[in-house]
C-alpha cells in the first residue's frame, strides 16, 4: 500500500435513510440505516467493514457503488463526485467500480454459460472488441482466477460454490476496475474454500493494484486480509484503525464486545478515559466526522455526552 497516494474512494458524511410507511400506507418517518459515515480507501488498500447483522454494511457497499445512492453525503471516486455524474458518465465509471456478492449462484444466470456471463461485460462496455477478442479475453480471465478456460461453455450448476465465486471475480475484473466492493464474498463457501478465494483476492490486488472494501462477519479473515478496519454499529462508524491497532488495542466498548475482549467493568471510568484521550486538535477530526483521533490513524467515536 502506498499510503501517500490520493484516495481511490473518498466517502464523506454519507447517510442512507429508508422511508418507514405506516401500516395504513400514510407517510411515516424515516429509518436511519446509515448515518454520517466518512472514510477513505487508498490505491492498493483493503478496508474491512465489520459489525453485527443489520448495522448497515451492505447499505454502505451499495451506496458507495451508487447501486443504491446515498440520501446525503458524497462519494468521490478517483477524484470525481459520483452523484454529480450524468447517467452516461456514470456508466463509464461503473466499469472501474465492481462488486462481488455473497451468493455467486444468485449473481449468475442459470441459462447462460459462465463464459458468456463474463463476456457480457465486454459486450456492454467494449463494443470495439470482436467475438474472437472477447473469447480470448475470457480465456485469459479464467486462467487468472484459477479456472480452466475449457470450462467456459459450462453452466453455473456444473460448478462448485468456490468455482462459481471465481467466475464472478473474473467478471468483476474483466473491465480492469480499480475498486471492488466485496460484500461477504466468502460467507457462503465451505471453510476449506474460503482461504483459497481470499488468497485469490490478495493475488489480484497485488497484480492489478486493486482497492477493496471488504465486508465480512469473519473477524479473523478481516484481520488477515485488511490493512485497516472500520467498525460499524447501528449505522455509524464507532472505530477505524489499522488492523493490528484495532485488534490489539480496541478502544470503543462496542469494538471490544465485538472482538470478544474482556468487557469494560466500569463504563464511567471508560468514558473518562476516552474523553481524556479524545482531546485531539479540531483539525484532526476531518476524516472521521464524529470520530476523534486517539493515536495516529486510530479513530474512535466519543460517547455523545463527551462531544464538544
Ligand atoms: N430497502 C430497504 N428498505 C428499508 N430498510 C432497509 C432496506 N435495506 C436495508 N434496510 C435496513 O437497513 C439496515 C441495514 O441493513 P444492511 O443490509 O445494510 O445491514 P448489514 O450490516 O449488511 O447486515 P447483514 O450482516 O445481515 O448483511 C437493516 O435494519 C435493514 O433492515
Ligand atoms: Mg449485508
TrEMBL record:
Lineage top rank: taxon: Bacteria
Record's subcellular location: Cell inner membrane
Bilayer disposition of the protein: Peripheral membrane protein
Alphabetized InterPro entries for the sequence: AAA+_ATPase, ABC_transp_ATP-bind, ABC_transporter-like_ATP-bd, ABC_transporter-like_CS, Oligopep_ABC_C, P-loop_NTPase
SUPFAM superfamilies tied to this protein: P-loop containing nucleoside triphosphate hydrolases (SSF52540)
Domain spans labelled ABC transporter: 9-259
Main localization (coarse): membrane
Keywords: ATP-binding, Nucleotide-binding, Transport
Record carries keyword Lipid biosynthesis: no
Keyword Nucleotide-binding: yes
GO molecular function, one term: ATP binding
PANTHER family: D,D-DIPEPTIDE TRANSPORT ATP-BINDING PROTEIN DDPF-RELATED (PTHR43776:SF7), TRANSPORT ATP-BINDING PROTEIN (PTHR43776)
Similarity comment: Belongs to the ABC transporter superfamily.
Protein's name in the database: Oligopeptide transport ATP-binding protein OppF
Organism: Methylobacterium cerastii
Gene designation: oppF_2
Amino acid at each position: 500500500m502506498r499510503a501517500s497516494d490520493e484516495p481511490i474512494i473518498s466517502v464523506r458524511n454519507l447517510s442512507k435513510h429508508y422511508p418507514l410507511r405506516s401500516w395504513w400506507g400514510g407517510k411515516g418517518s424515516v429509518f436511519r440505516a446509515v448515518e454520517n459515515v466518512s472514510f477513505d480507501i487508498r490505491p492498493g488498500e483493503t478496508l474491512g467493514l465489520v459489525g453485527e447483522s443489520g448495522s448497515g454494511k451492505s447499505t454502505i457497499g451499495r451506496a458507495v457503488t451508487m447501486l443504491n445512492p446515498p440520501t446525503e453525503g458524497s462519494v468521490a471516486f478517483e477524484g470525481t463526485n459520483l452523484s454529480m455524474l450524468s447517467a452516461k458518465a456514470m456508466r463509464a465509471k461503473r466499469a472501474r467500480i465492481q462488486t462481488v456478492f455473497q451468493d455467486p449462484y444468485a449473481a449468475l444466470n442459470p441459462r447462460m454459460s459462465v463464459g458468456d456471463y463474463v463476456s457480457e461485460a465486454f459486450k456492454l462496455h467494449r463494443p470495439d472488441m470482436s467475438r474472437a477478442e472477447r473469447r480470448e479475453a475470457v480465456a485469459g480471465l479464467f486462467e487468472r482466477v484459477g479456472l480452466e478456460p475449457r470450462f467456459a461453455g459450462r453452466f453455473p450448476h456444473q460448478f462448485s460454490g468456490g468455482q462459481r465465486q471465481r467466475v464472478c471475480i473474473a467478471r468483476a475484473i474483466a473491465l480492469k476496475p480499480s475498486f471492488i466492493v466485496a460484500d461477504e464474498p466468502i460467507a457462503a463457501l465451505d471453510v476449506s474454500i474460503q482461504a483459497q478465494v481470499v488468497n485469490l483476492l490478495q493475488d489480484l490486488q497485488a497484480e492489478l493494484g486493486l482497492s477493496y472494501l471488504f465486508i465480512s462477519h469473519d473477524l479473523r479473515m478481516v484481520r488477515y486480509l485488511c490493512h485497516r478496519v472500520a467498525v460499524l454499529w447501528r449505522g455509524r462508524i464507532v472505530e477505524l484503525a489499522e488492523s493490528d491497532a484495532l485488534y490489539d488495542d480496541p478502544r470503543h466498548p462496542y469494538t471490544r464486545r465485538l472482538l470478544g475482549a474482556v468487557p469494560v467493568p466500569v463504563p464511567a471510568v471508560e468514558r473518562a478515559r476516552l474523553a481524556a484521550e479524545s482531546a485531539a486538535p479540531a483539525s484532526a477530526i476531518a476524516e472521521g466526522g464524529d470520530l476523534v483521533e486517539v493515536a495516529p490513524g486510530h479513530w474512535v467515536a466519543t460517547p455523545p455526552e463527551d462531544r464538544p
